[in-house]
């Protein structure tokens, strides 16, 4: 305790008397190291979290309801909907019908029947346009033309991956039709049944599920696909408070709704590979960030080493007058702790006070995600602890090396 | 009983064939309250001898008892504690910690000995006052003249009332006025508190305040001059 008190006094005084520019530079280096540690993995993880967020907002919501194993559709959909409408924790929902069909374009201009038809196998979603827009903001994703009007019939929205001009960047991955624009007429064919639609708009999203879908009003869907029982394929729900998802899903299960459909929270519905990628990115980011830690620890080592070396004589004198070696080591470790604490504090301030809100407002535009900076406080704390401990070691080693030298040699400046 | 008993002290540096004998079997006894000055030309071994007596260095061979303790058998850590509790030092170039104020420099050994902050502060201020530096408690070493710094070093050496004070050429970097003040301080200390002082100096004028002057040459004591008896 005595050694700690005197060591802290010595360390504090050394910091106080040091050049303000040198101290600022060291703190700046520590801040950058901390930011590097947080930001690299934060952006990598944020990339996936951004994708997750996009899927949650534009496609799946907070709770996803699908057909039971062995069933084709959600059973007793209308009763089911009446039940979920009674939940005050549910903010909004959208009922979806889905099926596969063939989309054909440019058939009116096709004069030679020997020529290939301009067709693509597509997924068709039957939606209530108003309900879907409230749930996922689908109208905001329209990049050409307009959104579906709930009072109109005979109109279709097409995801851009079905349009050759947009899909060609991916090569031949997606089947697509050429030159389709809003106002053009296209045809959906299911077996022997065909129906013409006027293209109302094209939709583009970070979520492939939207880009690889066509949307028509659910009434027309049921007629086209002969789905007279009104049993839907998917119901997506947005809750008032997403933290209550599990509780709401459990409550639905307790009400017996699981006999009609499978009820999963968004988190449960996440594919395992996405969780694996997120964890891998986190490890990768930490690994890359750890290079920064090595650089910072070497910096601290050099700074403390030079500092201790230049004060070697004073260290010798302190030992000479009876000050324990431990006190001197504590003094230098205290300095290293000060640099690590101040740098990390400023780094955390910058991260949570500026960078996280900034990237939330201005996400990095990746093809499949709006990249945000993910920095959960617990992870940040662990990284701080790692940085802090390594800095303390980097401060201790040079102090130990100098302080263990022969007292008289240190006093006389002998090697 | 003598406070220092040194018998047949040898100190060598390096290894054969480059072995250098700096001390060649030095004997000395110092009585409690005695003021001993060690003189000699450069390279005579006087500072090396003082480092052995002051437990800053370890003799290559011989016997050394300081304040009843066989210091040659102590571990490094025990030697540090022994120096803290028994000895005080005044170095040639003041040897103050530049980051600490005059008061904090003097407080260091006191705090290390376990004094509380307030007690250490009071003792440090009293020691600084006793060397004539009233009011300069907060000054950093860089804000003091050479003579003042050396007086702070003396204050540091005396604050914890050690049994022996070792002074290694304490006037070497000072002008004549400051040198006189420092020597007077040490003499007064010896007279008033009866503290044992061992001082290395080049200047006979400054050695005349001692009880005894030892002359060294080529690693041995060649002459001893008794100036006055030790105060009872």
TrEMBL record, chain A:
Transmembrane segments: 20-48, 287-309, 330-355, 381-403
Main location class: membrane
Signal peptide per UniProt: none
Domain MacB-like periplasmic core: 41-254
Keywords in alphabetical order: Cell membrane, Membrane, Transmembrane, Transmembrane helix
Domain ABC3 transporter permease C-terminal: 287-406
Location within or outside the cell: Cell membrane
Pfam families linked to this entry: FtsX, MacB_PCD
Family indicated by similarity: Belongs to the ABC-4 integral membrane protein family. LolC/E subfamily.
GO cellular component terms listed in the entry, alphabetical order: plasma membrane protein complex
Organism per entry: Candidatus Kaiserbacteria bacterium RIFCSPLOWO2_12_FULL_45_26
GO biological process, one term: lipoprotein localization to outer membrane
Top-rank lineage group of the source organism: Bacteria
Topology class, membrane: Multi-pass membrane protein
Protein name: Uncharacterized protein
Automatic annotation (TrEMBL), chain B:
The UniProt record lists the keyword Nucleotide-binding: yes
A family per Pfam: ABC_tran
Coiled-coil region(s): none
Cellular component annotations (GO), alphabetically ordered: membrane protein complex
GO MF annotation list: ATP binding; ATP hydrolysis activity; transmembrane transporter activity
Keywords: ATP-binding, Nucleotide-binding, Transport
Keyword Transport among record annotations: yes
Residue ranges annotated for the ABC transporter domain, each copy included: 4-232
Family listed: Belongs to the ABC transporter superfamily.
Annotated PANTHER family: ALPHA-D-RIBOSE 1-METHYLPHOSPHONATE 5-TRIPHOSPHATE SYNTHASE SUBUNIT PHNL, LIPOPROTEIN-RELEASING SYSTEM ATP-BINDING PROTEIN LOLD
Name the record gives this protein: ABC transporter domain-containing protein
Species the sequence originates in: Candidatus Kaiserbacteria bacterium RIFCSPLOWO2_12_FULL_45_26
């Amino acid at each position: 305790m005595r050694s700690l008190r005197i060591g802290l006094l010595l360390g504090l005084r050394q910091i106080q008397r040091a050049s303000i520019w040198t101290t600022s530079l060291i703190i700046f280096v520590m801040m950058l190291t901390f930011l590097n540690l947080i930001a690299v993995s934060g952006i990598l993880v944020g990339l996936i979290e951004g994708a997750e967020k996009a899927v949650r907002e534009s496609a799946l919501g907070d709770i996803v309801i699908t057909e039971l194993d062995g069933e084709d559709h959600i059973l007793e959909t209308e009763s089911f909907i009446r039940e979920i409408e009674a939940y005050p924790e549910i903010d909004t929902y959208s009922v979806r019908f889905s099926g596969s069909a063939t989309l054909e374009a440019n058939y009116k201009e096709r004069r030679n029947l020997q020529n290939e038809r301009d067709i693509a196998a597509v997924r068709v979603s039957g939606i209530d346009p108003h309900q879907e827009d409230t749930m996922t903001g689908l109208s905001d994703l329209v990049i050409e033309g307009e959104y579906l009007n709930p009072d109109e019939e005979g109109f279709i929205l097409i995801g851009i991956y079905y349009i050759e001009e947009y899909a060609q960047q991916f090569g031949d991955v997606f089947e697509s039709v050429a030159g389709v624009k809003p106002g053009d007429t296209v045809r959906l064919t299911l077996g022997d049944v065909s129906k013409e639609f006027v293209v109302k708009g094209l939709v583009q999203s970070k979520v492939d599920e939207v880009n690889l879908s066509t949307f028509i009003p659910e009434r027309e869907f049921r007629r086209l696909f002969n789905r007279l029982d009104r049993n839907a394929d998917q119901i997506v729900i947005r809750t008032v408070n997403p933290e209550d998802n599990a509780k709401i899903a459990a409550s639905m299960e307790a009400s017996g709704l699981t006999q009609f459909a499978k009820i999963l929270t968004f988190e449960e519905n996440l594919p395992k590979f996405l969780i694996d990628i997120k964890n891998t990115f986190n490890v990768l980011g930490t690994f890359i960030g750890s290079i920064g830690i090595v650089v910072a620890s070497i910096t601290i080592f050099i700074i403390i080493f030079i500092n201790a070396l230049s004060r070697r004589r004073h260290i010798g004198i302190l030992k000479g007058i009876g000050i324990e070696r431990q006190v001197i080591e504590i003094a230098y470790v205290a300095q290293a702790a000060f640099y690590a604490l101040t740098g990390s504090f400023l780094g955390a301030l910058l991260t949570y006070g500026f960078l996280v809100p900034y990237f939330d407002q201005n996400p990095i535009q990746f093809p499949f995600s709006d990249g945000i900076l993910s920095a959960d406080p617990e992870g940040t704390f662990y990284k701080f602890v790692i940085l802090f401990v390594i800095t303390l070691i980097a401060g201790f080693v040079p102090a130990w090396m100098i302080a263990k030298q022969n007292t008289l040699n240190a006093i006389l400046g002998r090697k | 009983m003598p406070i220092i008993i040194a018998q047949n002290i040898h100190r060598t540096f390096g290894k054969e064939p480059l072995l250098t004998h700096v001390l060649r079997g030095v004997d000395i006894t110092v009585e409690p309250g005695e003021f001993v000055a060690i003189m000699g030309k450069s390279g005579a071994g006087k500072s090396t001898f003082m480092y052995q007596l002051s437990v800053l260095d370890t003799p290559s061979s011989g016997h050394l008892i300081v304040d009843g303790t066989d210091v040659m058998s102590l571990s490094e850590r025990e030697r540090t504690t022994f120096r803290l509790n028994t000895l005080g030092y005044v170095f040639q170039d003041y040897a103050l910690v530049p980051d600490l104020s005059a008061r904090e420099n003097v407080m260091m050994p006191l705090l290390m000995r376990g004094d509380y902050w307030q007690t250490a502060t009071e003792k440090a201020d009293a020691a600084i006052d006793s060397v004539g530096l009233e009011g300069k408690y907060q000054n950093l070493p860089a804000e003091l003249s050479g003579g003042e710094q050396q007086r702070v070093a003396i204050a540091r050496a005396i604050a914890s009332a050690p049994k022996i004070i070792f002074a290694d050429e304490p006037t070497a970097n000072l002008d004549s006025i400051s040198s006189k003040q420092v020597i007077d301080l040490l003499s007064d200390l010896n007279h008033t508190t009866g503290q044992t002082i061992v001082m290395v100096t080049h200047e006979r004028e400054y050695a005349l305040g001692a009880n005894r002057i030892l002359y060294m040459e080529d690693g041995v004591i060649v002459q001893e001059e008794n100036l006055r008896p030790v105060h009872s």
